[in-house]
Fold:
Amino acid sequence: MSDAVKVAKDYFDALAAKDFAKVGGYLAEGIVWHQPGANQMSGVHEGAGAVTAMIGRMMEISQGSFELALTAPPMGNGDLVAASIHFSARRDGAVLDQDGVDLLKVVDGQIVEAWLFSADQPGEDAFWG
Structure:
């Protein structure tokens, strides 16, 4: 397993465990995060603080129910790691439950850039508003 793949796997394990302090440790201070769609979470988020704030907002909106897990081992290509994921959340009668792919760029043991892809972007947009 390459170093980049190990970092990605450990990051996803921490996210699945909702260990957000550990999650933050995998994010480079200057991370650039590309969140897809047309909802309040969408757009380019720059900096670890902005990304952790977005994750915190997701937890708040989903009343703590947001979950994400790997569905297959992450795959590496140099400093890039592709990960098949499944994510879900609930809030006030609304349900988010779908697959996605996260593409992470890992440098010196930290995620420096991330691109996320959702299987049902309109459904995700409707959930987050």
Observations:
- Residues 3-16 form the longest helix (14 residues).
- The two ends are 38 Å apart (CA to CA).
- The mean pLDDT is 96.
